[in-house]
Fold this protein.
Amino acid sequence: MADSSASHDIERRASARRSILSVLGIACVAVLLDQIVKIWAIAALTPGQPVSVIGDLVQLRLVFNPGAAFSMGEEMTWIFTVLAVVVSGVLVWFARSLRSAPLIVLFGVFLGGVVGNLVDRLVRPPAFARGHVVDFLQLKGFAIVNLADIMLTCAVAGLVLIMLFRPRQFEEVSAAAKGEPEVHEESSAARADEHAQ
């Protein structure tokens, strides 16, 4: 019994390691893509001179945004920097509990979006932790955004869909985060007890 428990604990730790590394790997790719596109935008676009992509429906318009996603809270740059660091830490913490491939991908993309904009706040002018985020894509009647914003939006939409149609995946994450047996393990144990009776 002790050997079985120890083996299960080792497997759980190995699974947690794999989940964290997978989320971090996806996030790194997302951040790299975001920063490459931003570097291109700064080199190719001029502030105040929009470039039409599809008439006035989709335009490339370079701006440097001191606020949050979608240009909100422009006077609180440092607060958003702190929040981004905290959110990143929370995402990595919960990443160890992920077992579902879709959740791992969505967490990685979400983390990549958060860190992509965090990099701008840390290294871009006017100052450390108060840097302005590079935005460049505008849809008619909508805010000017960047690739990181799009990643965040898609990841949130995906997580909401899973929450609505596959809630058990979130139950398993919650159970794993609390150190409880996974949902499918509990079901298997219950069936074994019933069979023994």
